[in-house]
Structures are given as structure tokens and as C-alpha cells.
Amino acid sequence: MLNKKDTKQILIESLIQLSRSKPIEKISVSSIVRNCGAGRQTFYNYFHDKYDLINTFYFNNANRIFAEYMDTEPWNITIGRVVSFMIENRALFKNALLEEGRTTFFTAFYDHTKNYYINYIRTTYGDKELTEDLLFDIRFNCHGAVHMVKDWLERNMTDPPEILSARIANAMPKAMKKYFRWN
Q1: Domain range for residue 101?
Q2: Is residue 129 part of a domain?
Q3: Torsion sign over Cα 114, 14, 17, 99
Q4: Measured between alpha carbons, how far is 128 from 131 in angstroms, rounded to an integer?
Q5: Are residues 77 and 14 both part of a single domain?
Q6: 33 shares a domain with 80
Q7: Nearest residue to 110 (alpha-carbon basis) of 122, 120, 127, 97
Q8: What is the DSSP string of the chain?
Q9: Tens digit of pLDDT at every position of the chain (183 positions)
């Protein structure tokens, strides 16, 4: 019997384990629950589908990292922490980012990144209405950053995370840079 407090984590760990040997498209909800001894209804009590599980795992950890480090260290270091988290779970995120389609992790990763920037600027600086130019820069930056993380994973992470995160941070458009800590 699964402990209610740990059920989400058990399901996430099951998916992570399965992702080491199968692509995401070949992993079903049935295989996730069978792998950890849970029931299908238990899965659906917490998640809509396997993508919701992947997204929740990423979002919760990325948001935790941002909340803990965002205002205490340079932006590229905080990005590096998120990239390191992805390395710790490389099989899952590599599989998830390589899968194509509208409801994939790739799309959710982009949306989460874009919404994080928008909400951070609005909340931290009180800029409730962002200019169209700044919104364009945010979308442009997010497309580039997400594609570069995907490319980095496809190339088997040949650059250390601190190099990738510094490159992503340095490529940020000038209009966005004023909102983030750099030293």
C-alpha cells in the first residue's frame, strides 16, 4: 500500500526509472503504476496524464530553485542549478524534450519559462503592464533558451552546466537583463 504523503514522489520515481530504458512515448500510465505497485485511479487522483506528472516534477523543482536562489545569487548560477537538476534526471528530461507534439514537456517547459519571467518582473518590479517589446524579448529569449537546453541534451551534455547556463544568461536581451541579478 502506498503512503499517501509519498504517492506523488513514488509515481515520479517510477517514471524516472522507466525513462532510463524507454522513450516517453512508449511509457504508459499503466506501466508507471505497475512499476511502483500503485493503481491507475491513484495516478489519476494526482495527475491528468504522464505529461502532467513530468511537468509537475519539473515545475515544482524549478520553482523551488528559483524561490531559494533567485534573489541571493547571479542569474546564471540560478539557471545552472536548474540545469544541474535536469542532469540529475537526464534520462527523463532528454526523453521528454525530444518527444514531439503539442502537449509535450517541450511546450510546457517553454510556457513555464515565459510565464516565470513575466510573473517575476510583474511581482518584483510592479510592472503590471509589460511593453510589447519586452514581451517579444521574453518570448524570443525563452524560445532560444529552451531550444539550447534541448540541443545540449541531444549532444549528450558536452558542455558543463555552468557553461551552458552562462551562455543562456549572456544571450538574454538587454531589455530583460535589468530585471535580473548579475553579480
Answers
A1: 50-177
A2: yes
A3: negative
A4: 10
A5: no
A6: no
A7: 97
A8: ---GGGHHHHHHHHHHHHHTTS-GGG--HHHHHHHHT--HHHHHHH-SSHHHHHHHHHHHHHHHHHHHHTTTS-HHHHHHHHHHHHHHTHHHHHHHHH--STTSHHHHHHHHHHHHHHHHHHHHH---S--HHHHHHHHHHHHHHHHHHHHHHHTTS-S-HHHHHHHHHHTS-HHHHTTS---
A9: 455 558 999 999 999 999 999 988 899 999 999 999 999 999 999 999 999 999 999 999 999 999 999 889 998 899 999 999 998 998 888 888 877 765 678 888 999 999 999 999 998 888 678 899 999 999 999 999 999 998 888 887 788 888 999 999 999 999 999 888 776
Residues 36 and 58 occupy one common structural domain? no
The residue whose grid cell reads 510573473 is 119
Return the C-alpha cell found at 148: 539550447
Q: How far apart are CA 29 and CA 59, in angstroms?
A: 20
pTM recorded for the entire structure: 0.85
Given a contact cutoff of 8 angstroms between Cβ atoms, the answer to whether 9 and 42 are in contact is: no
Residue 101 cell numbers, joined: 507534439
CATH number of the domain where residue 58 is located: 1.10.357.10
